[in-house]
Design goal:
- The chain is α/β, with parallel strands linked by helices.
- The protein has three domains: 1-94 and 164-243, P-loop containing nucleotide triphosphate hydrolases (Rossmann fold), CATH 3.40.50.300; 98-163; 246-282, no CATH class.
- The protein is built from twelve helices and ten strands.
- The strands form two sheets. A six-stranded mixed sheet has the order 6-7-8-3-9-10. A four-stranded antiparallel sheet has the order 2-1-4-5, with no helix packed on it.
- The radius of gyration is 20 Å and the shape is globular.
- It starts with a strand and ends with a helix.
């Protein structure tokens, strides 16, 4: 499914506060099976942008198409759109409400009026995707799980709808390193199924490890859209957007500066380990 955004503007309006233009002249095309990270400082418009992609917000001006179908006003079939475009909010675990993990994950498929055997299959597959054993977790109360497990149950509820496009807003925020790593693996596995993944994050190590393409927003405008390798060469742009270099990338740059013949196009710990082993073998 192709996403096309053309000259998108969005202004928050309120009778009580001064209007605020959150997005200005956004144009983007995202192809099927891409993994795209949207980054930028707090208040740059990241969340506002992704909320347009499943109809939560409507453009003040401009157009959006999903698979050549324009998302416009009363013509939108929101139910159909949200089956195709799954949106995982920040802290999705606060939306858990059912008595069991099974019922929470099954909530979306049940709304689709699927037969019970298909619902069970979707719940089983979704829990497997997020690394939770079906038999061990399906009858548990989600409120008795750890924070990382609750996050994964909430993600499973979106995956159970089998969306072609998965959008995640700060998927690893407030998680410890272990739980964040499990969420990263979920994203990688879902992409391997041939799905499109778009995510917002302040975690530049997560961004560098997952995304091939990065879109940078600043004050509601796109100031960069391209490969991560190109972005990390643009120090002044990173500073403007209040973005840090990934830690592994910084480490490899320091190694190179200290005279070690290592590659500097390394962004993940796994890649760094492999590169250092290769360098040591050649010494």
């Amino acid at each position: 499914m192709v996403i096309q955004i053309e000259n998108l503007f969005f202004t928050y309006q309120s009778p009580f506060f001064q209007s605020h233009q959150a997005l200005s002249d956004i144009s983007l095309t995202i192809q099927p099976e891409e993994v795209v990270a949207i980054v930028g400082a707090t208040g740059s418009g990241k969340t506002t942008l992704i909320q347009h992609l499943n109809g939560l917000l409507q453009p003040t001006k401009g157009k959006i198409w999903i698979n050549s179908v324009e998302l416009a006003g009363s013509k939108i079939n929101l139910g159909e759109l949200r089956r195709k475009v799954g949106l995982v909010f920040q802290f999705p675990e606060i939306q858990l409400f059912e008595e069991t993990v099974f019922d929470d994950v099954a909530f979306g498929p049940r709304n689709l009026k699927l037969p019970e055997n298909q619902i069970e299959e979707r719940v089983r597959n979704s829990l497997q995707l997020v690394g939770l054993d079906y038999d061990a977790f399906c009858r548990c109360s989600p409120f008795h799980l750890s924070g990382g497990e609750r996050r994964r149950v909430a993600i499973a509820g979106i995956l159970a709808m089998d969306p072609e496009i998965l959008i995640m807003d700060e998927p690893t925020v407030s998680l410890d390193l272990c739980a964040a790593g499990k969420v990263k693996e979920i994203i990688m596995q879902y992409h391997r199924l041939g799905k499109t993944v778009i995510f917002v994050s302040h975690d530049m190590d997560l961004v560098a490890g997952l995304a091939r393409r990065i879109v940078v927003l600043d004050n509601g405008r796109i100031i960069f859209d391209g490969p991560k390798e190109d972005l990390f060469q643009k120090r002044s742009l990173l500073e403007r957007a209040n973005l840090a270099l990934p830690q592994v990338y910084q480490f490899m740059l320091k190694m190179r500066a200290n005279g070690h013949p290592v590659r500097t196009d390394i962004f993940t710990l796994e890649e760094a380990k492999k590169e250092l082993r290769n360098v040591l073998k050649s010494v």
